């Protein structure tokens, strides 16, 4: 008799750096086939589908914003409850260009 299908993911919360091509990963523990999807196009999945146990790598594009952003990865197996991973990408550090650092102000005679 076949054992029932199982699917779980670890961890369910991930963070990823703000710069381009930052990576993070999660593990899938399963005895069946599964598919992954991201609800944001800035976060790519290296293995969007598979069979059995796997380590899935996520790659993020640059976060140009000064606030963090969030994506959800949903892992689905046929007839099983979906597993969701929340991925938070760090904000970019604000960059201020303070050149030149000298300024001359001339007064006009009135």
Mean model confidence by pLDDT? 91
Counted beta strands: 9
> Strands of the largest sheet, in order across it?
2-9-8-4-6
N-to-C terminal Cα separation, in Å?
100 Å
What is the approximate shape?
A: rod-shaped
Taking pLDDT < 50 over at least 5 consecutive residues as the criterion, the unreliable ranges are: none
Count of helical regions = 0
Helical fraction: under 10%
Classification by helices and strands: mainly beta
Explained architecture:
With 110 residues, the protein is an all-beta fold. The strands form 2 sheets. A 5-stranded mixed sheet has the order 2-9-8-4-6, with no helix packed on it. Strand 8 and strand 9 form a beta hairpin. The radius of gyration is 22 Å and the shape is rod-shaped. The mean pLDDT is 91.
